[in-house]
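Structure ticket #2291
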Amino acid sequence: MLDVGLAALFLILIEPQRTGMAWHEILGLSIGFLFTMHVLLNWSWVKKTTRNLFTLAYKTKTKLCYVLNTVSFICVITIYGREFYGRELKSRGCCLSRIQRI
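Resolution: structure written out below.
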């Protein structure tokens, strides 16, 4: 059920013009919270799979799911970090686009 909620929120968040920027940000925080809950609820699977990732104990499908979950996690953290960092710099009068060109 949590996965369905994440997928639905993701589809809504693709185009911020549909919801307006305020709701886009609120839903973005919600999807971040749900994603964190998803990882925490499945933490035993994460630990067990990480330990046995390079053994023959798991099928290719499980390994692929692990890689996709890891990439998703990195993307979410990067997006939130960049958004927070950009706002922090902007509040100090620094332009993020100038920093990205360096």
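Closing remark: Residues 1-41 form one domain.
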